[in-house]
Design a protein that fits this description.
three-stranded antiparallel β-sheet; single chain; alpha/beta; 450 residues; 14 helices
Length: 450
């Protein structure tokens, strides 16, 4: 670029040097807004026409992409460097000894700067394959380019630099952002969206509370004191709905230790494999489980009626699932009894089953009253039918502190799903392990960043 005088050139040079230094320090794409503001302050904006300004912006974006490789390129295989404990590892251990939190749960000290795709680098510089990417919290892996692009946006910065109580003080573009990102992915028939900034477990709790309030209003029960204690919740054996006090009570092994809610534990089918050879036995087992569910609901009517049924499409803890016929009949049972039906998609939502929502595989027109999401989708909350909106909005409340920038992350995830064709890749991976002739499938390697 050529400028008319030395002063203007010097201003831009200083700005570029500052941007380069920021990119080297933070590792993500910087905006040209800082340069624009600096130029405005020096009163030389008139020297830049629209074309020049656009060229500068494109040049800076390209420069930041090159400098992005402060992060590593994609790894292809695990790599063992050293089994010796490094100085970094020793230092981290000594620091951790001063704190009780996390002392017994740490598995690795991770160098997140050097991690990439499905591989993370530990403090000893070993490259380790991470098949689940932090339990599913990193749907695109470490330092994905789509995520790095997202953090460069001005919308990301405005929510990251502040921690706003968005429920009370939203920005002017917040609700258009919800309409743009969340509305297109809402499950069938569920148009109301409730965002929860406190995490996945809180999202499950708020969904249960919404279901209870709806049930009490529908059946005109006395809820003057502790409505959660006036009714019960039906969960299933082997369920894992969260780690908070209320969600722990939904798990069978913890329900006695944390009796926060009145929980009825129903049997979940235990399918025998291979499925084709054991189809008749599995069908009978599912029919028996459905019969027991119906009986439990009838037994609770006189004491604590079942106000909600919550289920996972695939049980997170035991990795068990039932046939679509089981879920269809369970959903039909809930509708006949007038019980809200909650599908917990915290672990299964996000495309890992070949569809955005695992319950789409049930192929039913009205799959749920409430669908809880989180984990891979970065932001937590639930979709629900309009009638589950409480009369008093303060009955379902959350500060939504971290929702803004997490929506930016979700937008990047959805863009990557489309750009990298991840739905089809997930389906092909499934077929690779279930098809009798895997050689007939596409053998194209999935990039580690996917």
């Amino acid at each position: 670029f050529f400028f008319n005088d030395t002063a203007t050139t010097e201003i831009y040079t200083r700005s570029i040097v500052g941007s380069v230094r920021c990119v080297q320090e933070t590792g993500y794409q910087r905006r040209v807004h800082g340069d624009y503001q600096a130029i405005m302050n020096f009163g030389v904006y008139h020297r830049f026409n629209r074309i020049t300004f656009t060229c500068l912006k494109l040049f800076q974006e390209g420069l930041s992409r090159v400098l992005r490789f402060y992060y590593p390129v994609d790894y292809t295989t695990p790599k063992f460097i050293s089994g010796k404990i490094s100085a970094q590892h020793t230092s981290a251990l000594s620091e951790m000894a001063n704190y009780s939190v996390g002392r017994d749960s740490v598995q690795y000290f991770v160098n997140y700067r050097r991690s990439k795709g499905n591989f993370f680098v530990d403090a000893n510089k070993n490259v380790i394959l991470d098949l689940v990417c932090q339990g599913g919290s990193l749907p695109l892996g470490y330092n994905n380019d789509y995520m790095l692009d997202a953090v460069s946006s001005s919308a990301f910065d405005q929510y990251l630099l502040q921690k706003p109580i968005i429920q009370a003080y939203p920005s002017h573009d917040f609700y258009p952002l919800i309409r743009k990102i969340l509305t297109p992915i809402s499950p069938q028939g569920l148009k109301d969206i409730v965002l929860i900034g406190a995490g996945n477990s809180t999202a499950v709790e708020m969904a249960i509370r919404a279901a209870i309030l709806r049930y009490i209003a529908l059946h005109k029960l006395d809820s003057s004191h502790f409505p959660e204690k006036a009714v019960s919740i039906m969960s299933f054996d082997g369920a894992s709905h969260g780690t908070s006090l209320a969600t722990l009570s939904l798990s069978k092994e913890n329900s006695q230790n944390f009796p926060c809610l009145n929980v009825i534990s129903a049997p979940f089918p235990k399918a025998r494999t291979p499925l084709a050879e054991n189809n008749e036995e599995n069908t009978k087992n599912e029919a028996k489980c459905l019969e027991q569910c119906s009986q439990l609901i009838s037994d609770q009517l006189k004491t604590n009626p079942v106000a909600a049924i919550i289920i996972e499409p695939i049980q997170h803890k035991e990795t068990r699932m039932a046939s679509r016929q089981f879920f269809r009949k369970l959903r039909q049972l809930a509708k006949e009894k007038g019980i809200p039906f909650i599908v917990n998609e915290v672990h299964t939502g996000g495309g890992s089953t070949g569809k955005l929502w695992a319950h789409e595989h049930w192929m039913v027109e009205d799959p749920a009253d409430i669908v809880v999401f989180g984990k891979k989708l970065q932001v937590s909350g639930y979709f629900c039918k309009p009638e589950f909106r409480p009369e008093n909005p303060k009955e379902i409340t959350d500060c939504w502190n971290d929702v803004g920038w997490r929506l930016m992350q979700l937008q990047a995830v959805l863009k990557a799903i489309q750009g990298l064709d991840l739905y089809n890749r997930a389906n092909n991976t499934c077929l690779l392990y279930t098809s009798p002739s895997p050689r007939d499938l596409s053998t194209s390697r999935m990039p580690s960043s996917a």
